Amino acid sequence: MLFPFGGSVVPVSRLKFISKIGVEQMGELADSLDDPELLRLENLDTNLRPPQSALDFTKQAVDDDAANSYLPFFGLDSLRQAATELVEKTSGQHYDWKTECVISAGGCSGILNVLLAMLEPGDEVLMTDPIYVGLINRVRLAGGVPRFVPLIPSADGWRLDTDALAGIDPGPVKAALMMSPSMPSGAVFSSEEWQAVIEFCEKADCWLINDSAMEYILFDDRELIHPASFAGMRDKTITVGSASKAYRMIGWRVGWVVGPAEFIADVARVSISDVVCQVGIAMGAVATAIQDPNNGIKACVDKWQRRRDLLLDELGDFDLIPPHGGWSLLIDVNTLGMDGAIASKRLLERGNIAATAMVNWGSENSSRYLRVVFSNEPIARLRGIGQRFRQALG
Q: How far apart are CA 389 and CA 394, in angstroms?
C-alpha cells in the first residue's frame, strides 16, 4: 500500500512507480499528536497571511453568483491578464493573454497538464536531484521518465553539476523541468547555470518547463532570473506559476500556465478534460493579490530569511546546506550514521519536532537528507531548536 488509506494490492501500471511523498504520513502523525509544543517543520505551510486585499475579495466573491460557475473554463480574464503581465515582468517577453495563458487549479495541476500535453510514453524529463517527489510522480503519471542531474551541496549552498549535465545524452529528453528556487533544497540557479540548462535544451531541441512557484522568495538580495529572458527561449519555455507560495494563498488552489500559443492550446485541451475549471471564488482574489502593490511579498521574504538565518546559526553543528531561497532547507544526516527516515523518527520521539525524510525525492542519494521547513513557525518558537536537534540526533 502506498498511502495511509490503502490501495490496490496490484496497482495499475501507471501507479507502479508512483511513490509516497512522506509528508502525508508525517503530517497525519503530527496532527494526531495534537501537541501545541510540537514544532511543525514537515509541510510547506506558512503562518504568514495572504494579502488583505485578497482576503477581502474572497469574502465578497462568496456572495457573487458569477463566481459559482464553470465559466470561464480557462480562467477569469482579469486573472489571465494579471498572470501574463507577471510573466512578462520577470521574463522581459510579451505574451498574448487571450491565447498564451490558461489558469490551472494550482501550480502542480498546471505542471501535470503541461506534461500530459507534451510527453509521449518513454520521453525523458530532465530534473535536478534532489527535487520534489510530487514533480517526479507527475512526470511518471504522464508517461515520462525522470532523468536526474545532481545538485552539488556545499557549505555555501547548492550548485548545479554542469559537468554532469554536459554528459547526459540529450536525445531522449523531451523537456527540462526546472525550479529556482528549487524545492526542497532552496537552490537558486545563477545566470551561468541557467545558461548551461538552456544550452542543453538547445542540443536536445526540447521544452523548458519553468516551475516558478518560488521565484520571488530569494534571499541575500539574489537576482530573479527567468529562463525565457535568454535569447531564443521565449517560444521554448513554458512558465507554470502559483499563488500558493509568494502570495501565501495555498488553500485558494490557483496557478497559471504561460507559453507559446500553439502549445497553450494543447494545455487548454488537457485542462478542460482534467479539472475542467478552477476555484471560482478564488481567481479574482489572486488577480487582486498579483496587482496589489501592498501584497506583502518583500516583508514576508524578509521574515522567512530571518528564520532561515536562525536555523543556520542554531543548527551549525550539523551538515546543513544553506538555501538561497524558498521555504525549506536540507540537512545531510548520513554523516551522523543514519538516513533521513531514522532522523525523522528520532526528532519526533526525542525532540518533539516533525520533519520529513527525503526518501524518493530524487535518486537513491536523496534518502540521506532530512527536510526542515521554516515557513510555518515564528522565530520565537524556532529558538532553541539546536538543543532539541542535539538531544534527538547527537
A: 7
Q: Which residues contact 204 (CB under 8 A, 6 or more apart)?
A: 126, 170, 171, 173, 174, 176
- What is the rounded average pLDDT of the residues 189-203? 98
Three-state SS letters, 34-100: CCCCCEECCCCCCCCCCCHHHHHHHHHHCCCHHHCCCCCCCCCHHHHHHHHHHHHHHHCCCCCCCCC
Q: Which three cell numbers stand for residue 237?
A: 519555455
| pLDDT tens profile 117-164 | 999 999 999 999 999 999 999 999 999 999 999 999 999 999 999 999
**Gyration radius from the chain CA atoms:** 20
What was the pLDDT predicted at 169? 98
* Structural domains of the chain sorted by starting position, each given as residue range(s) with its CATH number in brackets: 13-50+296-393 (3.90.1150.10), 52-291 (3.40.640.10)
pTM more than 0.70: yes
**Weakest mean pLDDT among 16-25, 171-180, 181-190, 209-218:** 16-25
Number of C-beta neighbours around residue 383 at 10 A: 11
- Between strands 255-258 and 237-242, the pairing is antiparallel
pLDDT in tens, 10-44: 778 888 889 888 899 989 998 999 999 999 999 99
Report strand pairing: 207-211 vs 237-242: parallel
Here the contacts of 147-151 (C-beta below 8 Å, separation 24 or greater) are 147/172, 147/173, 148/362, 148/363, 150/363, 150/365, 151/182, 151/185, 151/187
